[in-house]
Amino acid sequence: MCETLPAMCWSFARAYEPKELEPYVTQISSALLITAVFDRNVNCRRAASAAFQENVGRQGTFPHGIDILTAADYFAVGSISNCYLNITVFIASFPEYTKAMIDHLIAMKINHWDSVIRELATKALHNLTPQAADYMATTVLPKLLPMAVGIDLHGRHGAILACAEITHALHKLGLQTNRAVVDMISSECVDALKNIHQKLKDRKQYRGFGGELMRPAVCCLIEKLSLSKMPFKNDPVITGWQWLIDDTIKTIHLISRGVKDSILASLVSALSALCDEFYQAEPGQADLQIQDVLVSQYIEGLKSPQMLTRCGSALALGCLPRFMIHGKVKQILEGLLQMCTVSQNEEKFTEARRDAVKAISQVCLKAGVCAHGSPDSALCSENVAEVYGVLLHCMTDYTRDSRGDVGAWVREAAMTSIMDVTLLVAISAPEILLPDLVKRMMCCLAQQAAEKIDRYRAHAGNVFLCLLHSKEPAVPHIPHQEELLRIFPFETTTSLNWSAPSQAFQYITQLLGLPQYQYHTLLGLTVSVGGITESTVHFSSHSLFEYLRGIQENNAALTQFGDTLLSIFRDNLRNDMVSIPFLGMLNQMLANSCFEIFATQENHQFCVDILDLCKEFKKSKVIAKLRVSISVFCGLIQFQGEVRKRVLAQLLMLLCHPFPVIRKTTAGQMYEMLLTYDDVIDPEVLDDVMTLLSDANWESDLETVRTHRNQLCDWLKVSQPRKITKNPVPS
After folding, report:
1. pLDDT in tens, 35-65
2. Where do runs of H (alpha helix) occur along 177-259?
3. Nearest to 716 by CA among 648, 632, 635
4. Under the phi-then-psi rule, with left for phi > 0, alpha for psi from -120 to 50, and beta for the rest, what region is 168?
5. Is the pLDDT of residue 729 over 80?
């Protein structure tokens, strides 16, 4: 049907004279415009727009045709949100189309089967209210209120949202003329709006699938009626609204996964507006009884075994207005900080940690900063270190589950929060920003800006530059600030695309030359250079090797770099998320002769330490770690002295590893190693060694393989490993 109407109207323009169509022009033009802006199908919208254009051009009698065509052309109607929220407002400014569009939305769109269309329709009604305020107040709203408590689920959902949006639009319109919304709508409508929640609750319509639509819709109604300053203070309906918000937080884990985020967002907005309007005993002062109940309840919710209840409680604490948290800041922050710390140690409740981190910054921003103030009412010298400690700890959250690196959500939230809090403290009380806190913050941001995931690298880089270049307020105690400003001039805040590896890594690797940033920058680069994403590995390794080539003649700088490398290795020896990419990065460094100055010295301590640390992996069951360890051992063969014998001994032990694939990989890589470094063994036995490595079946049984391995030991003049026999446990 929607495709037939534009086609027929398009043909009318060619088939009839203007005088013949003149009596029907208003109906045809309204129908075409309604289809052009409200139809769900983009092809139908574009067809209607084309038909309207044809009629305007050939008939010349369509009201305001040229003006409308400019706004509702073929391309403009391609975006459905643009149609509902912008184009409709322009078209409705012409009286011939206003009521027809409103009536169509009420009759056909707020009860549409698609929830997106219903929500867009209610927002369109909000935007159209100034064009026909009296019609909305006296005709549309009374028509919607029975639908808001009706039987049809979709109609009820759309009607509740529409009532909320229209009431709020009338309130904003009344502000311009100093009229309250209750003066613009009848007392019957006010009572009907107030009773919507109770009727739904009595009918148990907050349960089941219908409840997934009713809860966010009524939360939207609560928000809009609160913003509209409805005269419900001390009315029992406020208790009912608060019950709905609290019950939704407690039972949200029972709701379908796809709508949970939208429900949380709607209830947080509702709670904030409800507190602002109805929970003030005096202007700027909370009702103490309600304050105690809500704060205690949400802090207790942070300990819930249900993750989404924790999320809702954290977001609820974060959205409370300033007067609601006054005197409770210490209690709220302790609850949020404790949940972040404990849940991170348990590697559970990742989404709740993310929301708690957001709430921490929101509480700090609302409470404000006072250097010598009370921790119950502000961020001050007594609690600033604890807040920063938890936020910095959250920036090291690398929790993984079946969805991947979910800890990245927490890290992103922590970066945003730490930026907001730092700028607040810098402008109000910079003296409580201790040098150690600023150093740890900038180093953690540098690490995140060197990592492999484009989105989070970009976010970290932008936060880093924001804090570096902030002038009003200026962030104090930034380490190596002058050098950083030379590396990142002000232009990079807009020109540098941190998401592009080709741009980001050539800047971030320059931080390796700054002692206080070297460890964290190299730690971030480890997962990029040793990762598996081709573009990231290519550009990060290229930039890293460029830096290393620049310090080849500087023995002190290279030694310091090596020490930092070893520190990272030691600190993350048992962390496969770092140790495996670290070995991959180290293998690339050895293959590119980045430590050639060390290789010319016998038994250089760097090689000895690397070898000792790599030996820890020989009992690992992780194939990827064993494979890359073999590559590192083969790369270490370039070092001179007794250490070379020790490297060969490790490789020969791996030739008898319990895993056949490891034995085969070791033989193959040893073969390639001997081709590359032909001075490793005696030339007289080189051919025999190469032949045995290539021809022997290293995947056969261990006894056969051990014979071949022992032969290699004799040729290479390495002691044969002894088989350890475990003593039987005495009975």
Report:
1. 999 999 998 888 888 888 877 766 656 777 7
2. 187-202, 208-227, 236-251
3. 648
4. alpha
5. no
Cα separations (Å) of 445 from 395, 412, 459, 496? Answer: 8, 10, 9, 16
Q: DSSP per residue over 43-66, as a string?
A: HHHHHHHHHHHHHHHHT--STTHH
Yes or no: say if 422 and 362 are a contact pair by the CB < 8 Å rule: no
CB < 8 Å & 24+ apart, contacts of 145-149: 145/189, 145/192, 145/193, 145/196, 147/110, 147/111, 148/192, 148/196, 149/195, 149/196, 149/199, 149/200
The alpha carbon dihedral of 255, 237, 157, 36 has a sign of negative
DSSP 8-state assignment for residue 75 = T
Note the residue count of the chain: 731
Contact between 278 and 238 (Cβ < 8 Å): yes
| Position 40, amino acid | R
DSSP per position, 640-709: BSHHHHHHHHHHHHHTT-SSHHHHHHHHHHHHHHHHH-TTSS-HHHHHHHHHHHHHS-TTS-HHHHHHHH
To which residue do tokens 């995140």 refer?
A: 448
Yes or no: say if 627 and 582 are a contact pair by the CB < 8 Å rule.
no
Q: Where does the pLDDT of residue 17 fall: very low under 50, low under 70, confident under 90, or very high at 90 and above?
A: low
Per-residue confidence (pLDDT) for residue 209, from 0 to 100? 86
Checking if the pLDDT of 8 tops 60, the result is no
Nearest to 689 by CA among 648, 650, 643: 648
Q: Which residue has the tokens 């009201």?
A: 63
What are the φ and ψ backbone dihedral angles of 510, each rounded to 5 degrees? -70, -20
Distance CA 664, CA 660 (A): 6
Residue in this structure with the two tokens 């407002």, named with its chain if needed: 89
Whole-number Å distance between alpha carbons of 196 and 199 = 5
Contacts 24+ apart (CB under 8 A), 174-181: 180/229, 181/228, 181/229, 181/230
Residue 467 has what pLDDT?
95
Q: What angle do CA 328, 332, 334 make, to 5 degrees?
A: 120
Q: Give the integer Cα–Cα distance in Å for 359 and 410.
A: 12
Helix, strand or coil for residue 232?
A: coil
For 117, the enclosing helix (H) or strand (E) is helix 115-128
The tokens of 620 are what?
Answer: 């690992």
Distance CA 373, CA 376 (A): 8
| Residue 434, CA distances (Å) to 323, 360, 376, 476 in order | 29, 19, 21, 9
Burial call 302-324: b when 16+ CB within 10 Å, e when fewer: bebebbbbbbbbbbbbbbbbbbb
Round to whole Å and give the CA distance between 572 and 569: 5
Which SS3 state, helix, strand or coil, does residue 460 take? helix
Please count the other Cβ atoms lying within 10 Å of the Cβ belonging to residue 653.
16
Give the separation between CA 430 and CA 424, rounded to whole angstroms.
9
Sign of CA dihedral 638, 641, 645, 650: negative
> Can you tell me the mean pLDDT for 418-443?
94
Q: Which of 261, 384, 240 is nearest to 312 (CA)?
A: 261
CA neighbor of 225 nearest in space, from 188, 177, 288, 269: 269
* DSSP letter for each residue of 533-601: -HHHHHHHHHHHHHHHHHTTT-HHHHHHHHHHHHHHHHHTTT-HHHHHHHHHHHHHHHHTTTTHHHHTS
Task: Judge if the upstream peptide bond of residue 473 is cis by omega within 30 degrees of 0.
Answer: yes
pTM of the model: 0.88
End-to-end CA distance of the chain: 88
Interatomic CA distance for residues 5 and 155, integer angstroms: 26
CA 702 to centroid of chain Cα atoms: 50
Indicate the SS3 state at residue 471.
strand
Q: Which residues pair with 285 in a beta bridge?
A: 282
> Phi and psi of 638, rounded to 5°?
-70, -15
DSSP SS3 for 492: helix
- Please list the residues that pair with 471 across neighbouring strands: 474
